[in-house]
Each structure stands twice: as structure tokens, then as C-alpha cells.
Amino acid sequence: MSQKTQNQPKGNLAWWQLSLIGIGCTIGTGFFLGSSIAITKSGVSVLLSFLIAGLGTFFVFEQLAKLSAKHPEKGSFCAYARNAFGKWAGFSNGWLYWSSEMLITGSQLTAISLFTKHWFPNVPLWVFASIYAVLGLLVIFTGLSTFEKTENILAIVKTAAIFMFIVIAILALCGVLSGGRPDVQIPNETKEFFPFGAMGLWTGLIYAFYAFGGIEVMGLMAVHLKKPEEASKSGKLMLASLAIIYVISIGLALLLVPLQHFSEQDSPFITSLKGYNLDVILDIFNGIFIIAGFSTLVASLFAVTTLLCTMADDGDAPKCFTLKENKKICWPALGLTFAGLILSIVLSLVLPKNIYEHMTTAAGLMLLYTWMFILFSSKKLTKPSGMGKMQIFCAMFLIAAAVSGTLFEKSSRPGFFVSLGFLAIIAIVTWIVQKKAGGTKQPC
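C-alpha cells predicted for Amino acid transporter (444 residues):
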């Protein structure tokens, strides 16, 4: 590892730029649409869910940042898993993450297509999914610098949209808007804060965690930092900013309308402003939601194509996925990603009903399994003590709570079993590869 680390070229990314990229990769349909699922499961206690998920995400990123500071390597968490536990861990972790990101692209495609159907209700979902898939691949094709600039710009747009909602919601609460002063929905007792009890909080936790998904892309990008030791600083800024604006914006939405008005099919921000004759504003929000979803879709595509190339360098993927010298993109890697996107579009055509929730659950779970790998790798490689150990064990507990909560919700259970199916396939393939190990290189 040390030789590889020493040979790693110095990056040119400032820590605050990585924070912007992180925000751009994170704020997406997992928040703008997935939060509505969390609200229907948890009620007002969804605010607590987001705080818990933000804390758990912070603990995971702290460990990833420590690994990045000590050993800034391409492949990030996959390389750390390999160095900590051997080749099988790097191989399985890489394909686990690839699978999770492909599920995420499916959920992102479905979500932004649902948003687009708001304007074109008669157009089939798969048509929009196909268009966005092609556009996403075109952005990746242009290279790393375009990806960085795109995510930086979209991070500002998405954050501005949330602040715009906060301002409009405050005006609504003050009675300034044409709809008049709303009947503010303030919970006065514990039962109102936990309308579905502790079980509601538990089953909705997975969707809160999903809204923070994106720290893995920051891990992959940390190798490009001027000072890898500043990865922790960028993560703290990003996660603190997200936690604050997430809780404030969702809290305001919950104040504006009764809980039963929220639906899994609509963004809570659209739902909460429907009664104020703000058609143009709502259309602007809808457009921003599409931009946000497209941004996280591009981040997922960038992550899987980049990781495939790194895995090929390490012998964990076929050599045809190796990025050739002086080339911006690896065509076979892009081709495999495209095949995954086609599968996602087919699923959106075959299973239109509730597909977003099922795919979101599976994607969120697969992502959390990857986070578990990060925690185990950090425990082995950084030898934490005191606060570091506490962070690792707290993060493991919170992740386990989010995963287990899906078992107790009928609509979440299919996603859980989909994620188990992926785990089983990856475990079998890893076992076969290990059994055949002996220096033979994988053909393409």
C-alpha cells in the first residue's frame, strides 16, 4: 500500500471544492422525493430520523477521511478493504458498491421521470428514463473536469432551491401569501411527534440515511485533494450544512399542512405549498428536483465507471475495463454501465407501481453494506482508540437499526430481499474467484 500511496499523483482540489462536490452528489431525489416516504412512515419524528442519519453518516465519513488522509489511493474504500482483509474484500466490496450504484441510478431515473410526468402525464415513464440515461452518459463522456464543474454548479442551484423553499414557507406561515395564514401543525404531545410510535421512526430511518448517500463519491474524489488530510474538514462542512437545511426545510413543510396530506408519490415541498396559488413557483421547484436527481444520477455513473477502471487495475474486474493511457474514458466500463441503465429502464417499464420505493430501499441498503465495509476497514487499518472506536460502534449500531427496520414494513421488505439477493450473488462469485485464485488474470 505504501508504494502505491507514494506513487499517487498530487491532486489540485481544494477542501471546500470537495464539500461542494459532496453536496452536489448528495442532494437529490433521495431527499426531494425520498423524504416524503420517510414522512409517511415516521410522521413528525422524521426530523429525528434525519438527525440520527446525519450523525451516523458523519461517523462513517470521519473513518473514510482518516483512511484517505493516511493512504490516499485510487479505489478509496475498495482499496482499504483489500488492504485490511485481503483480495476477497476488495473484490466483493467493489462489486457490492457497483451493484448499489446501479440500483441507485434506477431509482434516480424513476424519480426524475416521475417529476417530468408532472408536465407530460401521458408520456410513459420509460421514455423519460431513456432520455436522462443518455444525457447522463454524455456528461460522463466529457471527463473529470466537466463532472467537477457540473456538480459544483448544481450544488449551488440545489442549495439555493432549498433556501428558496425555506423563505416561501416562512412567508406562508406569517400569512403573507394569498392562501392566508395556515393552521400551523405543531405537535403538542409525544403521541403527535411519534404518530406511528417507535416502530415508525425505526422503519423510516433507511430513507433518511438514503438522503445522505454520496459520501462514497467524496471518498473516490479525495485522491484529487491538494491536501488529503483536509478530507475530514470538507466532510464536516458538507454534512453539517445538509443536516441543518434538511431538518429546517422538512420541519417547515410539516408545519404547513396536516400529516395525512403527504404522499409517497409527491415531494413534501410541493405538497406543502399547493394551497397558495404558486403554480409558477411549483413548476420551478419541479424543474429543480429534476436537476437535482439528474445531478446525483451523474454522480452515480461517474462513481461506477471510475471504480470499474480502478478495480481492473487491481485485478478485481476484467482487464478490458482498464483505462488506457491518455484516454478520458474507458469504453467497456461505460458500456457495462449503459447495460445496467437499460436494465433499470426495463424495470421501470415492467414494474411501474411502487418501483421507486422498492428500488430506493434496495439501493439504500446496498449503500449501507458498503459503509459497513468502510467501518471494518478503518477499525483494522487506523487502529482507533477512544473517540474513534466509539464512532465506529455507534455508526454500526445506527446502520444495523436502519437495515433491520426494513423487515418490519411491508412495502420495504421487497427491497430488503432484493439487496440480500445481490449479496448472495456477489458472495458466490467472490468464492468462485477465490477458489480459482492462483495468479490467473480474468479475461474480458
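The mean pLDDT is 81.
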